[in-house]
From TrEMBL:
Domain of life: Bacteria
Species: Rhizobium sullae
Similarity remark: Belongs to the ABC transporter superfamily.
Keywords: ATP-binding, Cell membrane, Membrane, Nucleotide-binding, Repeat, Sugar transport, Translocase, Transport
GO molecular function: ATP binding
Residue ranges constituting the ABC transporter domain according to the UniProt record: 15-252, 257-504
Protein known as: Sugar ABC transporter ATP-binding protein
InterPro entries cross-referenced by the UniProt entry: AAA+_ATPase (IPR003593), ABC_carbohydrate_import_ATPase (IPR050107), ABC_transporter-like_ATP-bd (IPR003439), ABC_transporter-like_CS (IPR017871), P-loop_NTPase (IPR027417)
């Protein structure tokens, strides 16, 4: 284990934590963790889901109070704990993965609304809010129409709005939780440029990301947590993705191509000339039993819209869909499910799962017909179905009736997959199945995908991360501007060939 660097080793830390412990219901979430951040530094906080990253951030920002003995030193002051008000006043800001913005409000209102908050009601000066928003965006080198509702902007621009809002409070330390999870490569490059701008202006940034290539590109140091304990603090120079993965998980992962011949297997899905104006055009493809077909491309390429049309959520204007040789035209996703198509949404939090409901209820919600007995839901059938899939997919839970929100991202994703497997599908569409999932959990999910394909299930794997489709699909389609522009067979090309085409 690498010992935390002491102030004598370099500049005095802006933030220094020592002896941080946190327990929830008898479970040690943090075990004597130490952590520090230097002024203007870009520092990566790495670890699998459940390793304690979010708990540590919530202690720093005053959401949680650590156990006695903790020492928090920030900007020359010493605290046993901080409150949210104290942390914000001191210039500590967090940009969570869900951004916590207001889509119906304007950009200016989202950026500057905190400037009008107070104990007593008072008139809102919208001109002042606009000026504040424009100045904050200019500091990032970005120009947006601040009078437009936020919902008019894509996720990349919303991310910038969230950063601009953090700067309003004279931020000295900004935590970014999975800021690039939903961004294209070009959008990610732009965000990294903004982070460098912040760093150069003296703002320290703590970057939390499961995309390890970004971690190495932007960070000067990494703090690695595993199971609530500090593994070590490391310089980014000389570090590799495989080494970070090993430190985070305590395991090594080997990536190898799935080289299989499924050309003689029967065709499950055949699409010919499928079109929906403004979203995708002239799409033709097929998927066989036991085959994993990868679809990649930048966000906005039409991948998800195509998946929604195959699943009955959108109606194509032209073209045909055949399932096991028979033409189908779905009016709803219910009809698609009944025909044997399952779709795992890229938006697990909003569309994939119902967060407040139990693990068991989430798992059976798409297959209620299988647990009905004499017109009523059968508890015994429900618990049998749930127990089966929890065991088959290795889902780590406390109790079946716990809220699904209590699970880590990786285990939530397994529940979402189990929900669809319980419908006994012929075709499983996985849309960005590893968004917000750490590297160890990703490996587990792709192990499940491989086993499902080996069992004969036809799979469409959609991802904007080229390595995911390269290493885990039998064939890869590259979509751009709503069309299939390239077709690849991974065993006949290099990863760099597909990346060059997608990111050109």
């Amino acid at each position: 284990m690498t010992a935390p660097e002491s102030p004598e080793d370099g500049p005095k830390p802006l933030l220094s934590l020592r002896n941080i412990n946190m327990t929830f219901g008898g479970v040690k979430a943090l075990k004597n963790v130490s952590f520090d951040v230097l002024p203007g530094e870009v520092h990566c906080l790495a670890g699998e889901n459940g390793s304690g990253k979010s708990t540590l951030i919530k202690i720093i920002t005053g959401v949680y109070r650590p156990q006695s003995g903790a020492v928090i030193e920030y900007d020359g002051q010493t605290y046993s704990h901080m409150s949210p008000v104290t942390a914000q006043a001191a210039g500590i800001q967090v940009i969570w993965q869900d951004l916590a913005l207001f889509p119906e409000m304007t950009v200016a209102e989202n950026i500057a609304f905190q400037t009008v908050l107070g104990r007593w009601p008072r008139p809102v000066n919208y001109n002042s809010m606009r000026e504040t928003a424009v100045r904050a965006l200019a500091r990032l080198g970005v120009a947006l129409d601040v009078d437009l509702p936020l919902k008019e902007y894509a996720i990349a621009q919303r991310q910038i709005v969230a950063i601009a809002r953090a700067l309003i409070g004279d931020a000295k330390l900004v935590f970014m939780d999975e800021p690039t999870a939903s961004l294209t490569q070009s959008e990610t490059d732009r965000l990294i440029g903004i982070v460098r701008t912040l760093s150069a202006s003296g703002v320290a940034v703590v970057f939390v990301s499961h995309r390890l290539a970004e971690v190495l590109e932007i960070s000067s140091r990494l703090t690695v947590l595993r199971d609530g304990a500090l593994v070590g603090i490391y310089p980014a120079t000389g570090m590799t993705q495989s080494r970070i993965t090993e430190l985070m998980t305590g395991k090594t992962f080997d990536q190898a191509l799935r080289v299989r011949d499924v050309s003689r297997n029967p065709v499950v899905l055949e699409v010919d000339g499928l079109s929906r104006p403004g979203q995708f055009e002239d799409i033709s493809l097929s998927v066989r039993c036991g085959e994993t077909l990868g679809i990649t491309g930048l966000l906005g390429a039409g991948r998800t819209e195509l998946a929604h049309s195959l699943f009955g959520m959108l109606k194509p204007k032209a073209g045909t869909i055949r399932l096991e040789g028979k033409p189908v035209r779905f009016s709803s996703n219910r009809e698609a499910i009944a025909a044997g198509i399952a779709y795992l949404s890229e938006d697990r939090l909003s569309l994939g799962l119902i967060q407040p409901q139990s693990i068991a209820d989430n798992l059976v919600i798409a297959s209620l017909d299988r647990i009905i007995s004499r017109g009523l839901l059968s508890d015994s059938r429900k618990w049998d179905l749930v127990a089966r899939w929890i065991a088959d997919l290795g889902i780590r839970i406390g109790k079946q009736d716990d809220a699904v929100s209590t699970l880590s991202g990786g285990n939530q994703q397994r529940v979402a997959i189990a929900k669809w497997l319980a419908t006994n599908p012929k075709l499983l569409i996985l849309d960005a199945p590893t968004v917000g999932v750490d590297v160890g959990a990703r490996a587990g999910i792709f192990d499940i995908v491989a086993k499902l394909a080996d069992s004969g299930l036809a799979i469409i794997l959609i991802s904007h991360e080229v390595p995911e489709v390269y290493f885990h699909a039998d064939r890869v389609l590259h979509m751009a501007k709503g069309r299939i522009v390239n077709r690849f067979t991974p065993r006949d090309c290099a990863l760099q060939d597909i990346e060059a085409a997608v990111y050109a």
